[in-house]
Amino acid sequence: MKDGARARDLDALRAEVRRGRIPAHVAIVMDGNGRWAEARGLPRVAGHREGSESVRAVTREARKLGLSALTLYAFSAQNWLRPRDEVGALMDLLREYLLSERAELCDNQIRLEAAGDLARLPSRVREPLAELRGVTAGRPARMVLTLALSYGSREEIVHAARSLASDVAAGRLAAEAIDEEELGRRLWTAGLPDPDLVIRTGGERRLSNYLLWQAAYAELLFVDTPWPEFREIGLLSALRDFQRRERRFGKTSAQVAAEHG
Ligand code: FPP
Question: Where does 23-152+195-245 sit in CATH, by number?
Fold first, then answer.
């Protein structure tokens, strides 16, 4: 397709999506980088690099559409098990991203957050991450971009359970006071609304330890497009799919229809 025609398609899709309900929080499993690269005879890291371009494009589009939160699975707790070279290359890419995105995030009023066992990250990532979180936290924000880094949902729930147990043991918290909110406040995603939509790119149909608690009522969307090719059009198409779904939160279809008049 010619560039002009592609731009017109994108504009038409954007206009259609803007007319519908925009979810507050979208979370994405950015999968398929390695296979995208291997299919082109390139090293896997070339896929991660191209994936960084999708991160930029999707973040910008999400902000333009008015999402209040976007959460990206950038490095899982289990990704530490990958070959040393690949882990090192991913850390380099993250550092590069954190050093280069300052103006983009500030100009677009995006606050950067991170969720995960951040102490495990090397200082070459931890330091620019802390710096950018600090800078963007001090400014007005229209969207929160959370990078799930060294993140695993089970690890997160264990961490929250330990924190609750230690407060109960110390007499700071009554066991009966533990409820969903109290646990939620101790998750690495504390402060974020639950995701409305969780997207996984790259063709696999699983959650891979991502936001298992938070996604209890999320719509799930699995797409075959590898993350490096997802870009603006991928996000817009996913939102159009989301807009066609009915969210019932345990109620009946008739109840939901009555609530929406
Ligand atoms: C999964 O693809 C993706 C990752 C493990 C890393 C995601 C990282 C990026 C998109 C780039 C850096 C991030 C930022 C925020 C700049 P995979 O390698 O498992 O793909 P495969 O299933 O095809 O092997």
Answer: 3.40.1180.10
